[in-house]
Amino acid sequence: MTDVTISLESGRDDSREAGFGDYFALLKPRVMSLVVFTAFAGLIVAPGGVHPFVGFFAILCIAIGGGASGALNMWYDSDIDRVMKRTQSRPIPAGKVTREEALGLGLTLSTFAVVMLWLATNWVAAALLAFTIFFYVVVYTMGLKRRTPQNIVIGGAAGAFPPMIGWAAVTGDITLSSVLMFMLIFMWTPPHFWSLALFMNADYDKARVPMLTVTHGKRATRNHILVYTILLAGFSAAMFATPLAGWSYLVVAVVMNALFVKGAIALWRRDETVAEADGYRAEKAFFKLSLAYTFLHFMALMVDKALFSFGFGGPF
């Protein structure tokens, strides 16, 4: 038996050395970018202020914590990552990094991120970051993902905490405004991922992940997308009850929710035969729209904060 065969059995192909890019890929950089952006938005729109260096370090700690969650998720899910076409190129199934290395990296970075955020800001922000990591890894990845079709609904809370953490890093508290930022992402997550599942269903079925499309079918998934999209529009409107929303947010909320609800209705009306025949174009378009939805909502909040600071406009 060759050395390469032995290495493959242990999870790594030693015919090539793992590089920085392989370890960085464990942190799910694309997901981390959303974490950083929404956490930064929460920090910017929070009342009061924070020293730029402290703010930068806080966002860095949140990013590291989010990346640590990704590494721990890949450690635990490496078996199904090998099965799903979408995830087969990840570092562990590709044989670039071992499961043990991913676990060690995830635990080390988690500890570092939480402790340093506590020292740099306050215990509330650190506690929220610690709970976010715990929720994503233990509650979602280990507990829900393989057991219930509501995995995305409940597990979506992990991705919704970053703006609350950014807010708490400045204020040291939790308020209605930060909770509504949380709810924007929490209610957005199901239609976002379910639209992806509509055209990636074969992957989830093959990996035996009980996504709603697998357990209840695509018709039920389309119904759920419509319901959650309407509820999301309600929480988007509720932001007007806070001091955060101004004219920029009004324009974005009206336009994006109109487009999102219209898209959800279009998906709800779709026949599976027609959808499959045209390559799920409407579903893919809705998925792309969902990416713009979150980005523009949080960008509008930051624009309004800047306008308020310069004396233009004001909250509703």
Description:
- The chain is mainly α and 316 residues long.
- It has 2 domains: 1-173, UbiA prenyltransferase (Tetracycline Repressor, domain 2, Orthogonal Bundle), CATH 1.10.357.140; 175-316.
- The protein has 16 helices and no strands.
- Helix 7 packs antiparallel against helix 9.
- The longest helix is centred in the C-terminal third of the chain and has 29 residues, at 281-309.
- Pfam families: UbiA.
- One of its GO terms (cellular component) is plasma membrane.
- Keywords: Cell membrane, Heme biosynthesis, Membrane, Transferase, Transmembrane, Transmembrane helix.
- Converts heme B (protoheme IX) to heme O by substitution of the vinyl group on carbon 2 of heme B porphyrin ring with a hydroxyethyl farnesyl side group.
How many domains?
Answer: 2
Query: What proportion strand?
Result: under 5%
Number of strands: 0
- Unreliable runs, pLDDT <50, ≥5 residues? 1-10
Highest CATH level, the class of the largest domain: Mainly Alpha
Mean pLDDT: 89
Q: Indicate the CATH architecture of the largest domain.
A: Orthogonal Bundle
What is the global morphology? Answer: flat
